[in-house]
Amino acid sequence: MMKLAQINLFSRDEFVLVIGPVFEHSPWIAEETWAQKPFATKEELHRALCRTVESAGEEKQVKLIQAHPDLVGRAALAGTLTQESKGEQASAGLSALSPDEVALFQKNNAAYREKFGFPFVICARLNKKEAILKGFEIRLKNTRGEEIKAALGEIEKIALLRLNDLVAG
């Protein structure tokens, strides 16, 4: 873990290297937020990062959503998830599914991607497989706009948990 005071002293490149992975394969968020430092608290840093996402416009927001892996998708089954995603999916019980459960997740992933054009994103660390499956059922009824908003809300939760793992205090 690092202290926020240390992070506040980082160059742009150091900040992007350390804070960039808080948002899945989207270092641009840390890059665009760097100039706002110093941050008084970890929560202030999180809010600044989230404001960068909120002001990015729909195209960049959708690319951020698309940077996330499918739950129990190809990357998970092939073992190519980021360390963060691997741990998060495991914490939800998604690394110990039966073949029927894997098939159900893949069916839901396909239906969701077909409807919205991006993967289903939910904060796995705050859910278990049953709640995630229920989330698919509920959120597949949403409009694309509602789903962009829902996915971004889940991404903010994921980012906060990742920041908590990274930054002391």
From TrEMBL:
Gene3D superfamilies xref list: Oxo-4-hydroxy-4-carboxy-5-ureidoimidazoline decarboxylase
Enzyme class: lyase
Keywords for the protein's UniProt record, in alphabetical order: Decarboxylase, Lyase, Purine metabolism
Lyase as UniProt keyword: yes
Pfam families: OHCU_decarbox (PF09349)
Domain spans labelled Oxo-4-hydroxy-4-carboxy-5-ureidoimidazoline decarboxylase: 10-164
Pathway(s) annotated for this protein in UniProt: Purine metabolism; urate degradation; (S)-allantoin from urate: step 3/3
Any single biological process term in GO: urate catabolic process
Reaction it catalyzes: 5-hydroxy-2-oxo-4-ureido-2,5-dihydro-1H-imidazole-5-carboxylate + H(+) = (S)-allantoin + CO2
EC number(s) from the headed UniProt entry: 4.1.1.97
Coiled-coil spans in chain: none
SUPFAM superfamilies: UraD-Like
GO molecular function: 2-oxo-4-hydroxy-4-carboxy-5-ureidoimidazoline decarboxylase activity
Protein name listed in UniProt: 2-oxo-4-hydroxy-4-carboxy-5-ureidoimidazoline decarboxylase
